Amino acid sequence: MTCPRIESERLVLRPFAESDVDDYTAMLQAEPVRRALHLADDVGRWDAWSQMTGWLGQWELRGTGQWALEEKATGQFVGRTGLHHPERADWPGVEVGWVLRPEHWGRGYATEAARRAVGYAFYELDRDALCSVILPENTRSVAVARRLGFHLEEERVLSHLPSVAHGIWWLTRTEWELTRGAGKAGRRPTR
Ligand SMILES: CC(C)(COP(=O)(O)OP(=O)(O)OC[C@H]1O[C@@H](n2cnc3c(N)ncnc32)[C@H](O)[C@@H]1OP(=O)(O)O)[C@@H](O)C(=O)NCCC(=O)NCCS
Q1: Which residue's alpha carbon is at the smallest distance from atom 10 of ligand 1?
Q2: Contact indicator for 113, 67 with CB cutoff of 8 Å
């Protein structure tokens, strides 16, 4: 399937385009993003381009992938969010993931886009459960997962980054329907 174009309140979730290479490269090179994702110091345009083609390819091959996030108010590229189901024996399942350019942190965009992605996975793809793979030190990412209602099930080492243990967070469709992605505090109804 081709990556669909969908929307949330303030964002367009759309397929990656060639014109995103500069912005995607800048996002990967931003120091807090590089640090959080354990990217190499010399991460650059090839990595950005190769990830973008990978996301588009994953949609085509598998029906999962990440969207480029565009701010409706400005048309700016603000990051990526979506689904990830790589061909790795120890990957726990269909993952929901999020990365924003640092200048767009602190506005609720990651949670808003991920909420839309979770709804898409449960109701368009008919998934029963979704995971999120997060380093315990990544408190901002953990906060996004918590706001969506994910719970930590285990910590373990995964082959893509063997030097550290990842937290494996899960959200079932039943949990989602009970909380509507508002998190345990019951804040911010989804729809
Ligand atoms: C993880 C990441 C996407 C989280 O970004 P974030 O901006 O903290 O998360 P959100 O976009 O959901 O924004 C939430 C914040 O916006 C605030 N906010 C402001 N306006 C808001 C609004 N209108 N609606 C909702 N929240 C709003 C919230 O109160 C919250 O603030 P807080 O951090 O002070 O509690 C970002 O830190 C990132 O890109 N990190 C690097 C990449 C990475 O680690 N990815 C995850 C790998 S597992």
Answers
A1: 108
A2: yes
Measure 28 CA to ligand 1 centroid, in angstroms: 17
What is 6-179's CATH superfamily? Gcn5-related N-acetyltransferase (GNAT) (3.40.630.30)
> Residue 172: CB within 6 Å of ligand 1?
no
Question: Quick check: pTM over 0.90?
Answer: yes
d(CA 68, CA 66): 7
pLDDT tens track for 91-142: 999 999 999 999 999 999 999 999 999 999 999 999 999 999 999 999 999 9
Residue nearest to atom 20 of ligand 1 (CA): 107
Distance CA 81, CA 117 (A): 7
Mapping DSSP onto H, E and C, the string for the chain reads CCCCCEECCCEEEECCCHHHHHHHHHHHHCHHHHHHHCCCCCCCHHHHHHHHHHHHHHHHHHCCCEEEEEECCCCCEEEEEEEECCCCCCCCCCEEEEEECHHHCCCCHHHHHHHHHHHHHHHCCCCCEEEEEECCCCHHHHHHHHHHCCEEEEEEECCCCCCCEEEEEEEEHHHHHHHCCCCCCCCCCCC
Decide whether any atom of ligand 1 lies within 6 Å of the 136 Cβ: no
**Within 13 A of 90's CA, how many CA atoms are on the CB side?**
12
